Each structure stands twice: as C-alpha cells, then as structure tokens.
User: What shape does this take?
Amino acid sequence: MPARNARIAIALTVLAFPLACRQQEKSNSPGVPAAGAPAALAPAGPLGNATVTGKITFVGTAPENPPIDMSEEPTCKADYSTTPRQRVVTVNPNGTLADVFVYVKSGLPAGATYAPPATPVELDQRGCMYHPRIFGIMVGQTLAIKNSDGVLHNIKALGKANRPFNISQPTKMTTDRPGFTAPEVMLPLECNVHGWMHAFVGVLPHPFFATTGAEGTFTIAHLPAGTYTIEAWHERYGTQDVTVTVAASETKTIDLRYPKP
Assistant: This one.
C-alpha cells in the first residue's frame, strides 16, 4: 500500500504541474486595452510609478474636413444624419485636439524589453470609417480587424519597416492579423474599396503611448524614473518633441499647442 500511495501522489503532482503553470500564465496576462488606448502593462520590462500627462490645445480656426460621397454605399450612409466627413482634424468643444498620438520616443533604460499583451487591439470598420482612426499597438500584439458594416472592405497596410498586407472582408466578420514585427510610427492603413477610409497605427516595442480623445488629454503612466523625449504626432500638423524628467512617484504635465506656433 505505501508504494501504491506513493505512485498516486507522484501522478497527482504531474497532473497538477501543468495546471499551476496555466494559472500562473493567466495571472500574468494583461487586461484588454480600450481601442486607441495604451497597451495593458506587459509582464516584462522595467516599470515604475512616474507619470507624464498633458493636454493638446488647438489654436486658431479649425479647417473644414473633406466631405465624403457615400451615395453608392447606402448601408454606410444611413449611419449619418448630415454629410459625412473625413476626420482629419477633430477639434473638441473645449478647444483641444483629438487623434494626437503621444508616445515615449526615447529615454527608456538601455536593453529594456516588453512582452506584448495577449489580448488584441481592435480596429472596427463602421459607417465606412475606421474606428479608431489613430491608435497604438505593441510589436507582436494581435490586431483584430472587424467589419461591422457587412459591405466589402479591403484593408491595406502600407508598412515600410513592416511587411505590407492586404485583407478582404466581404461581410460582417473579424480577422485576427498577427502582430507587427518592427517599430513604426506611423503605419498607414487604407481601404481599396472606399478611398476616403484612412487610419494610422503607431507600432512600438513598449506600452508607453496614448491617443488624445474627446478631452484632448493624454496620460503615460508606470514609467521608470528618468529623462524622456515625448513625441506628439498629428496626421496633418506633424510632430512635436518635448524633453521631460520625472522622478519616482512624480507626475509631470506637458501641454502642447497645434498648429505649431
């Protein structure tokens, strides 16, 4: 009996080991990032408790965005009560600018590496527009391309550092695209069927990025203490770089203005 009990104990241990590993992997998995939001924190790479936050203010009169003729796409046109327009420049009611991609351009510790989240970033095609238009993703993170319209879309990625791709979606469906292999800011996306459909994705090897939304603000958290170059990118108005030094547990605020003075 003792020998038999020992064999049972060994068998139970062998069975339990893979389960424990799976539970550990699950506990290390990052959360699902909101569309266009910073990637969930990865389980590798140096993190800290410093934060860089700020606001992007628009100066002057907002230009009129180009109108879109959707007369041949009644399914998409039905989503709009007025003439749809490309969202090239989106000025919020509070005078701030949306769709500005803000990220750490340099300053992270040498040799720092960050694993991508296991959950994908979703790019939706709705009303014959990309949602979000401007967003970020980590190298190696899956891009889930969704067609909510049910009309033919053809998604074309015009990568330079990354291999271009072309995906057709004839109906409502979601295609999981394997992760990009190299950093690239910014990588354009377009639809061959609808020439007005454009999006831009910032591909980064770390999770320290954000996109301004309806309030025109951004927050880049969990930074190690250090000196960083923060870059802001806008589709029409280009880039601005700011150098900022943050200590442990410190929050620094940097406010930018577009167009550039």
User: Anything to note?
Assistant: Residues 31-258 form a domain with the Immunoglobulin-like fold (CATH 2.60.40.420).
